Amino acid sequence: MPEMHFHIRWPDGRREACYSPSLVVKDFLAVGESYALDDFVEKTRTALTIASERVREKYGFACSSAMAQLARIETAAKRQAPGGLVTVETFES
After folding, report:
1. 92 contacts 8 by C-beta, under 8 angstroms
2. Of 24, 25, 26, 33, which alpha carbon lies 20 to 30 A from 49's?
3. C-alpha to C-alpha distances, 83 to 4, 16, 31, 35, 52, nearest whole angstrom
4. pTM
5. pLDDT tens for residues 54-66?
6. Do 71 and 45 meet the contact criterion of CB atoms below 8 Å apart?
7. Which of these, 32, 5, 31, lies nearest to 18 by C-alpha position?
8. Domain range holding 22?
9. What is the rounded end-to-end Cα distance, in angstroms, of the chain?
10. Cβ-based neighbour number of residue 66 at 10 Å
11. Number of domains the chain is built from
């Protein structure tokens, strides 16, 4: 299963490398695009849940790394000022 990293910039300027066990993130996010904070969290929640389920289908268990990444995104989003934009800077396979 091809894994990937997607690099983002939070509204406060902090950069973060995020992990996905699947390329499905590319179906929800685009490099160079900026997303409203709530929209970004929802898109990554959907993508990482799908990615985790793909791992479950293949290996018989969910991907704890995908769920941990989602938890980090949700926690970081709560620290951002409302109305900010999250920018997707790069994809790395």
Report:
1. no
2. 33
3. 28, 19, 20, 10, 29
4. 0.95
5. 999 999 999 999 9
6. no
7. 5
8. 4-92
9. 11
10. 27
11. 1
